[in-house]
Amino acid sequence: MTSPERSTAPSEPVGGNERTPLTPRGRRTRAKLVDAARTVFERDGFGDARIMDIARLAGMSYGSFYTYFATKEEVFGEVARAMQHEMLSASEPPTAGGDAEPAPEPPVRVYDAVVRANRRYLVSYQRHARLMAVIEQAALRNEELFRIRREVREAFVDRSTAAIARWQAAGIADPALDPGYAASALGSMVDRFGYVWFVLDGSFEMDKAVDTLSRLWVQALGMTTETRLPDRRVAG
Amino acid sequence: MTSPERSTAPSEPVGGNERTPLTPRGRRTRAKLVDAARTVFERDGFGDARIMDIARLAGMSYGSFYTYFATKEEVFGEVARAMQHEMLSASEPPTAGGDAEPAPEPPVRVYDAVVRANRRYLVSYQRHARLMAVIEQAALRNEELFRIRREVREAFVDRSTAAIARWQAAGIADPALDPGYAASALGSMVDRFGYVWFVLDGSFEMDKAVDTLSRLWVQALGMTTETRLPDRRVAG
Amino acid sequence: MTSPERSTAPSEPVGGNERTPLTPRGRRTRAKLVDAARTVFERDGFGDARIMDIARLAGMSYGSFYTYFATKEEVFGEVARAMQHEMLSASEPPTAGGDAEPAPEPPVRVYDAVVRANRRYLVSYQRHARLMAVIEQAALRNEELFRIRREVREAFVDRSTAAIARWQAAGIADPALDPGYAASALGSMVDRFGYVWFVLDGSFEMDKAVDTLSRLWVQALGMTTETRLPDRRVAG
Amino acid sequence: MTSPERSTAPSEPVGGNERTPLTPRGRRTRAKLVDAARTVFERDGFGDARIMDIARLAGMSYGSFYTYFATKEEVFGEVARAMQHEMLSASEPPTAGGDAEPAPEPPVRVYDAVVRANRRYLVSYQRHARLMAVIEQAALRNEELFRIRREVREAFVDRSTAAIARWQAAGIADPALDPGYAASALGSMVDRFGYVWFVLDGSFEMDKAVDTLSRLWVQALGMTTETRLPDRRVAG
DNA sequence: TATGAATGAGCTTTCATTCAT
DNA sequence: TATGAATGAAAGCTCATTCAT
Prior knowledge:
The first copy, chain A, has helices at 24-48, 51-57, 62-68, 72-90, 110-139, 143-169, 179-199, 206-220, 232-235. By secondary structure, chain A is mainly alpha-helical. Chain A has 2 domains: 1-78, Arc Repressor Mutant, subunit A, CATH 1.10.10.60; 91-235, Tetracycline Repressor, domain 2, CATH 1.10.357.
């Protein structure tokens, strides 16, 4: 919408402060509205969400909504950006999702890294499932949301693409695969599995799901659960 | 508006063919409306689709719409059911999608069967991509659509589940995998890949996509592209 | 707004048929709405006029208003155009307003022609006074209305300008005057007099008003109430 | 909202100086608001003017507006009264506008006095054109504004009426004219000419406009640009 | 049947005004 | 006094649905 990515400024990660001006009280009220909006959007989707429901849930009159946001799109963008931020930051920390690189100590199983990344992703997905589905809908009709959705996806896929290429270079992954295609496919697998599980209410169990997905992931690439990155000191 | 009591038939959520006309002319008119509806729903989504657009596209006044359908939900259900039918029938013919069984002649590569199934699926997906996305949205808020969506999915997953179990029994697939989990995951992979490709406009190429997905599929299950079903006459 | 002058098509003089489609019934309804709109606009002005009041006065629900007009501006344009048409046509017939023109028979008093024109103008003004005032307001904020207002004015002023120039050429009007300035000033005099009289409720009497204005008019131009156009056959 | 009960003082329609602040600071703040209000009203008209714009332009929060004025009508009345004052005072000083007044020295051309008055009026009009147009609109729906508008007009017309009567008595103006009608008509001429010029953006040039209007004015009354008031000492 | 006029629930948005701080 | 958050009456407009012809 109006405001550009604010990815560089970690202190104001969510952005979209069109009607920013705030006293402490105002800030609290605004936050309440964003929270309420998220709940309502998750429940009703974008199109069926009513401003009045948001305001009421936030404990105020609908007029107050307009003190902070100009339109429904505006809060939605805010909510979406907040989620994007959470999803992205949740997927990096220890070892970036989908790859095994920094590998501090020599012989680490690729599988273990994949397990960690997948677990992180699914746990995060669980918390945001409904909202992501809603964003996905809305994204089909809105430029910026589409971009947000794509960025989240690309962050994962890009990382995987790089990792797969590295593994191929190291001689442990199937060289016949196109890293980009494979990364997109395997990312889709985990992503969609989360959707089926958390949104469509499939009945799965976390440990087993993580294990299955991770196994499929490494084997699909031609590795086994025991495959390790060759010791660079030796290899180099 | 959004979710009215359906006092007449709570057991018939989205609508049925109560008003099915029987004159040839009526049947043609109705068909025109369903076609037009599909186009409009694909373009605008369920919520933003307007009866008037559907009627106009079908070349008639909006009043006529109600001669054939009681509500917007009703046509949508019809459109969704038609698509479900096409998707399902498109995935069975030669050799059912996602498995390699009927295998007429003795030594056939699993990979080849998977390739055929995946290609069929993606080709079919391409034709229905937008509509499936729309149905997916609507399904979150409608019982029957949800069911339709699930049925399409289950048809694929169930077939794969059975196939995987068979391959495990035949000793060619990784016995450590839960067939249900694995089938769901691999089905998700192909399904989602299609979505990213056709709806989110990813840029892929058909042959390469089919090959990559099929490779990942068989390898994920612990097979290779050369793995064949053991000759049953011998095995038995 | 959307539709251009339709001045050439006398059969559809009012224009603005954005939602034209009409059955006889629809045509009647639309006409009722235009009538009602005029009344409401005269009473409340543009800004304070409520669509609901218009619809109610026309004896229908406000929703029906939107069957025929997309916005308040649209009906207003229609009403304004209708008035423009009446004003303009009311000022031409017998002998065009403000000038002494073609004068069929030789010795005709300029004063008599001016009297006729002024009377016609004031009578017409009386019928449209409130509405003109409202249009004038609205015109300050709307392109097309501004144009309409200006066209009505120019029709009068241009005719006067030409007449004054003719009289000067004939040697009966003060040659020191700029015809354009003088025509604008004298036109303003009659126009504004009408406003003061009919809108601000000045108390005047028709015959006396017409006589005074006409006298002032001819004398201002350096003529008297007895001045006649010289016989052209003689002059030529 | 629009016309609330004014429980405190029904006899004081538009507002008064109930809240007149007395500290120097308060007076300054209030003045800033009136100035800002004038600007905003000129730009947006009464209906579209927003309190917030006024307050912001005056450099303060909108809450402060209500420290000084109870309603939008109230500031508008203040602005209108200020303009009335300026217009009236601008038209009297040297020699009152529209008449040939106290004529200090014996033989003075009526034309010269009229020129002075008309120039003063047009110059003043130029400064107040937009605002007068706005007041005129608002006046149609508000008692007091209507009164203000009428007072400004009458001040001019009454003076002219008296002057014309004097000139008729002196034998230099056409005795057939009703002084009241003529004064209203000629006043309208100048007034409306100013409107067409400054509000409707007619293109005129000051000296020529003043000369034309003044010539028309004296000639309309049966005088010439050379007519002088007879020396009273002689006449008397 | 086909048509399109009529209806009104429902939603968004604006903004003057009130009021706690 | 000054501030700006909160309020809610009011309107405009959309569109599914009903109904007379």
